[in-house]
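Please check this chain.
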Amino acid sequence: MLSARSFFQEILDNDDAYRLFCSIAASGETQGGWENARIAALVPESQRALAPKIARHGADEDKHGRIFQALLRKRGLEPCEVPGDTDYTMLLERHGIGLAHARLQADTPLSEQDIITYLAHSRVTEQRASEQMRMLLRYFGDHPELGRAVRMISDDEDNHLAYCHEELLRLARAGHGPAIHRTLHTCVRAELAVYRDVSLAVMARMGEVLGWSGARGRLLAAGIHAAYRYERVHGWRRMVSLASPERRDPLGGPATTAPEFA
């Protein structure tokens, strides 16, 4: 039977697939940690109050990278090289979404539009991350090996999503509504296509590792394409809407530390 639960269980039960999965996740989270740390350092004077929250966001992402690395070490595995076609974060950058690394590597302060670009990009991608972690939480929240990590990361991703809503609404009230609207819609169009392509690439590589039949691979690919078509027509709206979050000031405190895994 094909299901998200059975797919992730296959990964969990196979060291090579698990190594690839955790390596991809660790790489993306660590990259996000660096990006947020640079943005926090370059926040314009008009938005300096945001800097500690952006830094907290980055610290959380970096922590998630360390958690995935710790999960690998617990199994006696080393991270593997992340295939380029599975690198969600870098593929988004190549599509012109978010702030380019070249911009973040410079020491020039960001503009308010740059901050809108960062928050809109985060609003879209954190929606994806929150949904993925909630799915893992539903299936593996009580798992003896993964449960603790999944619960912590899922809670953090929900905080990040709430923070994006809160800050974008604040900027909209300050008169940036049209720019936010345009940027969100540009981001989501690119994200849907990148997520589809990355999903297909990950599925193909997992299929090679796990020895799936060609028929199974084609069926899973068809499911990914169907999900993309649905998101292009209807699902994208959930990724650009803004609403006052139940979690208020979710990044207002210090980041929590990564748990130790024996």
